[in-house]
Amino acid sequence: MESKRESILKQKEEAELKVQQYENKIKLLQNRKQHLKKKADRQRTHHLCNMGGAIQSISKEADSLTKVEFYTLMEQVFALPAVQELVDAAMQNHEPGGDS
After folding, report:
1. 8 class by beta-carbon count within 10 Å (0-12 exposed, 13-18 middle, 19+ buried)
2. Torsions phi, psi of 4, nearest 5?
3. pLDDT in the model for residue 66
4. DSSP 48
5. 20-29, 42-51, 52-61, 78-87: which range is least confident on average?
6. Who contacts 65 (Cβ-Cβ below 8 Å, separation ≥6)?
7. What is the DSSP letter of 94?
8. Please, which residues have CB within 8 angstroms of residue 77's CB and are 6 or more apart in sequence?
9. pLDDT band at 19, cuts 50/70/90?
10. For the chain, how many helices (H) and strands (E)?
11. I need a surface site. Which of 2, 17, 24, 56 has the fewest CB within 10 A?
12. 68 CB burial (10 A radius; 0-12, 13-18, 19+)
């Protein structure tokens, strides 16, 4: 009877150890997911800053506009058929994965 009890206790300890290992693995994966999300957010922010900087360097006047005025202007500019054609042409020449 004692050996059966010892066997059950050993199985319980092994099961608890496995539970703890899986909980640690879950934490590691959650941390990795969070890290990758932060990395993607930083890359997006960097990209947006570069795009904004390009607009600012091309049109110094646009820098003095308010946020609402700037968005309104961009909506009007990108609604122009000639601009849409240029965007379409740029997208056709776009190389996926390129950073520059």
Report:
1. exposed
2. -65, -40
3. 92
4. H
5. 52-61
6. 73
7. -
8. 83
9. very high
10. 3, 0
11. 2
12. exposed
Spatial separation of the C-alpha atoms in residues 94 and 100, rounded to whole Å: 11
Q: What sign for the dihedral angle of Cα 16, 21, 27, 29?
A: negative
Of how many residues is the chain composed? Answer: 100
C-alpha torsion 63→46→100→37, nearest 10: -150
Token digits for 53?
A: 């900087």
Rounded CA-CA distance 28/23 in Å is 9
Round to whole Å and give the CA distance between 28 and 25.
5
Which residue's structure tokens are 């904004």? 52
User: Which residue, chain included where needed, has tokens 């965007």?
Assistant: 87
